[in-house]
Write a structure and sequence with these properties.
Layout: E1 37-38, E2 43-47, E3 74-78, E4 83-90, H1 109-142, E5 144-148, E6 154-159, H2 181-196, E7 202-205, H3 207-215, H4 217-224, E8 231-233, E9 244-252, E10 255-262, E11 265-267, E12 274-276, E13 282-286, E14 293-297, E15 317-319, E16 324-332, E17 338-350, E18 357-361
Parallel strand pairs: 1-14, 7-10
Antiparallel strand pairs: 2-3, 4-17, 5-6, 7-13, 8-9, 9-10, 11-12, 13-18, 14-17, 15-16, 16-17
Length: 366
């Protein structure tokens, strides 16, 4: 005769929470010095560019000097997008057993509220951090930021006016018989060297692009040429960085490039589908020293949160090292039965050294 539910003994072990920690590989390349945290409506930057000029000779010592034109600069201003997410805790929900709690003990409303509030804040933080990574991925792949609201409407667009030749398409699709990936990378590298005045030394490949790259015979011949050791790939057991995996280095013409792959994902707010930050068929090529800026604007408010909500409210989540500045807030309903928690940020990823990166689409247009 089978045992009934009240005859079975049970031991409850610790609850398991499956956190989807954001991967911040691309946004981690953007610097966030203290000056990049601000309370203004817009972000402004002065840009002065140099050329690789050569001093001409003069006919003799009495001829005088060659004068150069005065340095000029341009000013650019950008308005950052706004993220404000919130959640609510209802007192009646706190009566129910929380994950991992003993079902035979009376609930501690205060403790439950505190635990749930901090878990909610973590979820809001992760949502904003993924939005930051999405911005970085768009900047590096297209030079344009396009953001959507909850209903799938495009509500924010910022075109940084990057040079079109920094976003080429492969002459022949990688993975096909006529593909020449090394030539494609060399061509983009030369464009970056000419316009950005710096050698590209980093190639971040989508997973399909990398698979096609290492299967190409020219690449395999290059890696097998041990006499001059032009390049060698080595799989590393550990992930390097936040989501990126280092694959090794390869010489492409006059450029030695560290090759990375990236498979970070997010849930598309428009479709609900899981999408990759980096298009699987694209390759970002850049000078790893090229300046990229992550800036964060404050979320203004007139008064500080009520003292009653302070036990449930974490402080401002500001970390220049992690490239993050998130402002927190909380309030209670007049009847004291609902606790609202909120997190907000105004992040903007700026490709300051805009000529020192590019992105190759490895699928040739038909």
């Amino acid at each position: 005769m089978p045992l009934t539910s009240n005859q079975v003994t049970q031991r409850m072990i610790a609850a398991y929470f499956q956190d989807a920690t954001p991967q911040m590989f691309l946004s981690g390349m953007f610097q966030t010095p203290p000056a990049n945290l601000h309370s203004s409506e817009e972000v402004s930057i002065d840009i002065e560019r140099s050329e690789e000029e050569v001093s001409p000779v003069i006919s003799d010592l009495s001829a005088g000097h060659n004068y150069t034109a005065a340095d000029t600069y341009v000013n650019k201003a950008f308005k950052p997008p706004i993220h404000k997410d919130a959640g609510v805790l209802n007192a009646f929900d706190l009566i129910t057993r929380q994950p991992g709690q003993d079902p035979f003990q009376d609930p501690d409303f205060q403790a439950n509220a505190m635990e749930r509030a901090f878990r909610k804040f973590r979820k809001l933080e992760y949502r904003i951090r993924r939005a930051i990574e999405l911005q970085a991925s768009q900047v590096l792949q297209t030079g344009v930021i396009e953001l959507f609201d909850n209903d799938g409407n495009k509500v924010y667009t910022l075109d940084y006016q990057a040079r079109s030749d920094h976003f080429p398409t492969a002459a022949e699709a990688w993975g096909t018989a006529d593909a020449d990936s090394l030539s494609d990378l060399k061509s983009l590298g030369s464009t970056i060297r000419t316009n950005g005045l710096a050698k590209p030394d980093m190639a971040i490949m989508g997973i399909d692009a990398f698979d096609a790259f290492i299967q190409e015979q020219k690449v395999r011949d290059l890696l097998d040429n041990r006499r001059i050791d032009l390049g060698a790939f080595q799989r590393m057991e550990e992930m390097v960085g936040e989501g990126g995996e280092f694959r090794g280095s390869v010489d492409v013409g006059n450029y030695q490039m560290a090759v990375w792959t990236y498979d970070g994902r997010y849930k598309d707010p428009e479709t609900g589908d899981s999408k990759r930050y980096l298009d699987p068929a694209k390759v970002i090529v850049r000078d790893s020293g090229g300046r990229l800026d992550a800036t964060f604007g404050a979320i203004p408010r007139i008064v500080q949160p009520d003292q009653r909500v302070m036990p449930f409210l974490p402080g401002r989540l500001a970390s220049p090292e992690l490239g993050m500045d998130i402002h927190t807030n909380a309030w209670v309903s007049p009847d004291g039965e609902n606790l609202h928690v909120a997190a907000g940020s105004r992040p903007l990823m700026i490709p300051t050294a805009i000529d020192r990166f590019g992105c190759l689409d490895t699928q040739a247009s038909s």
